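Hypothesis: this fold can be encoded by more than one sequence.
Test: take the C-alpha cells below, design a sequence, compare later.
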C-alpha cells in the first residue's frame, strides 16, 4: 500500500507540474476523487484496527500490572510488536490523504475552478 500511495502522489504531482495542452482536468479530478475515496476507506479500516490493538494493549497492560505472569507479559509484547507498525501505517495513510486533499485543490485550480481555502471560505 505504501508504494501505491507514493506512486499515485508522484503521478498527480507530475501532472500538476507539466503543462500539457489538452489535459482533461475534469477527468483527472474525477479519477483523483475515486482514488482518494479508496485511500480514505483504507485509512478508516486501519484506524479501527489500530484503536482495537491499542485498547487490547491497555487491557493487557492492566493485567500485567495487577497480576503479572510470563504469558501475559509475552502477550503484552506481542501486541506491542503489532501495534507499532499499525500506528506507522496509519500515520502514512493519514498524511497521504491530507496531501491528496491539497493536490485536489491544485487540480481544481488547474481546471479553473475555485478551491476551498480556510483563509477564504466560500459562501
Amino acid at each position: 500500500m505504501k508504494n501505491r500511495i507514493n506512486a499515485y502522489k508522484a503521478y498527480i504531482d507530475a501532472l500538476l507540474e507539466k503543462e500539457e495542452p489538452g489535459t482533461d482536468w475534469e477527468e483527472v479530478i474525477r479519477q483523483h476523487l475515486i482514488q482518494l475515496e479508496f485511500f480514505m476507506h483504507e485509512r478508516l479500516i486501519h484506524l479501527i484496527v489500530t484503536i482495537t490493538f491499542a485498547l487490547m494493549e491497555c487491557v493487557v497492560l492492566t493485567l500485567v500490572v495487577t497480576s503479572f505472569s510470563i504469558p501475559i507479559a509475552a502477550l503484552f509484547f506481542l501486541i506491542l510488536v503489532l501495534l507499532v507498525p499499525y500506528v506507522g501505517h496509519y500515520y502514512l495513510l493519514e498524511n497521504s490523504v491530507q496531501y491528496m486533499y491539497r493536490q485536489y485543490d491544485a487540480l481544481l485550480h488547474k481546471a479553473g475552478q475555485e478551491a476551498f481555502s480556510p483563509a477564504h471560505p466560500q459562501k
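The helical segments are 2-17, 25-66, 70-110. DSSP finds three helices and no strands in the chain.
Hypothesis status: open.
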